[in-house]
Amino acid sequence: MLKKMMIVAAMFGMLGALSACNTVAGMGKDVQTGGEKVQDAAQDVQKKM
């Protein structure tokens, strides 16, 4: 019985991890876009100097 409960818990854990992948990937893209904006701004400042 304990083994079955462990398997079910592991399945729910994997399901949660898989659903979080899209969220983390989306957050990574947002951070990347923000980094690109900062880099562009820094390059603009360098050109003005």
Automatic annotation (TrEMBL):
GO biological process, one term: response to toxic substance
InterPro entries attached to this UniProt entry: Entericidin
Signal peptide: 1-19
PROSITE patterns, sorted: PROKAR_LIPOPROTEIN (PS51257)
Keyword Signal: yes
Keyword Signal carried by entry: yes
Keywords: Cell membrane, Lipoprotein, Membrane, Palmitate, Signal
GO CC field: membrane
Pfam families referenced in this protein's UniProt entry, alphabetically: Entericidin (PF08085)
Entry's family note: Belongs to the EcnA/EcnB lipoprotein family.
UniProt-recorded name of the protein: Small secreted protein
Organism, as annotated: Collimonas fungivorans (strain Ter331)
